[in-house]
Amino acid sequence: MSSSDPLQEFLHRLDGETRIGKDSTPGRLEIANLAEQLFGLLFPGAHCLDTAEVRYSETHRQFENLLIRITTDEARTQQLTVSLFRQLPAIYDDLVGDAETIYRFDPAANSVDEVVQGYPGFFAITIYRIAHLLYLQKVPLLPRFLAEYAHSRTGIDINPGAQIGRSFIVDHGTGIVIGETAIVGNDVRIYQGVTLGAIQVDKSLANTKRHPTIEDNCTIYSNCTILGGDTVIGHDSVIGGNTWITRSVPPFSLVIHKANIDVRPRRSNEPINFSI
Length: 276
Hints:
By secondary structure, the protein is an alpha/beta fold. 42% of the residues lie in helices and 12% in strands. It has helices spanning 6-17, 28-42, 52-71, 74-86, 88-105, 112-118, 120-136, 142-154; strands spanning 157-158, 163-164, 169-171, 177-178, 183-184, 189-191, 195-197, 213-214, 219-220, 225-227, 232-233, 238-239, 244-245, 254-255. The longest helix is centred in the first third of the chain and has 20 residues, at 52-71.
């Protein structure tokens, strides 16, 4: 190919001119490996032959090697690594509480081990709790990358900036979205398709609270949408499926969506007309 060939010029750009998605940014496989290793450190499964010390050393090394490429600051990297791994016991205790709560409330769960190793919601919560600590430490890129790996693996999108309390239950989980400034209290149960989102999406609102607050001991059923930074779901409330909420709800509320359903015999030759 000649030097003026458009394909050659494009390949040259990809090889180094634009640098988009290159430099020190970790690749997708590296993020996936780190996320799985972090999960495996805490919850290795019955057939893992490595001791906790071996798992810890390998995960510590992998995390530090990846992080220094992002921060390009050795002292900062060491500080962040030490901080994260010192907080692992507290994270572990919170996660055990999450798993035990899921097992206690889910009649389909046969054991805590089944929840830990088999429930996508628990995996998403685990990665969220680790990513959230990194977010609080203002680590660039990595918190979001870890959260997005969990999103791609489970269908559950929890922004690492969200604040989520103890004994959190994600049931089924597919399609759940929890925004960056959402606040979720203790003993909250969320089902598939729930969105805790913003009313307005605008870059100028980046430093404002855009997502709702869910107080303690609430249950939010499937396909419910709750929007707005000023929206508060009061404690001990139950939010029914398919509801759309943009204003606060007092404690001990029951919110339901009523649909008109017409059930009647159908003649064999009757056309079906859909109204949307």
